[in-house]
Amino acid sequence: MSNKLHFNHCFVCGPENPSGLHIHFTLGDKKAWCQWTVLEDYVGYSNMLHGGIMSAIMDDLMGHATYSMNVDVVTAHLEMDYRSPAYVGDVLDCSAWVTEVGTGRSMKVEGAIYCGDRLIAQGKSVVVIGKKAEEDGA
């Protein structure tokens, strides 16, 4: 698994960012998932989770889905569909999975965020593969 792009001050997953979300991701075969409770510090309007925060979670989540393949990636394109609001106190179940590995340096990843059985958001991304972690001694 790649640890090359791990950064302790990452807004989404960094444990040392005092303003961050502190999300811990679990990795599987070409997938990642997490659970996170919406906090008041991250609302945008009327007790609802800010869409930009949701997008940041999805972006990081999709990046983590590729880490089980021992590659580091950067996002080239991110597409979000917001289906239902998430509110302070909601426990969100988030998952992402690699859907396609291109013949070049690109990969496609999809993800979903649920609160119980209610779909909150869906995302799709195209990511660009960097060099493998072992090539850089990581």
CATH level-two architecture: Roll
Helical segment count? 1
Query: Rg to the nearest angstrom?
Result: 15 Å
Reading the helices and strands in chain order gives EEEEHEEEE
CATH superfamily: Hotdog Thioesterase
Q: What is the total tally of β strands?
A: 8
CATH class: Alpha Beta
Mean pLDDT: 90
Low-pLDDT residue spans: none
Give a summary of the structure in a few sentences:
The chain is 12% helix and 42% strand.
Q: What do you see in this structure?
A:
This protein is mainly β. It has a single domain, classed as Roll (Thiol Ester Dehydrase, Chain A). It contains 1 helix and 8 strands, in the order E-E-E-E-H-E-E-E-E. A 6-stranded antiparallel β-sheet has the order 1-2-6-7-8-5, covered by helices on one side. The longest helix has 17 residues.
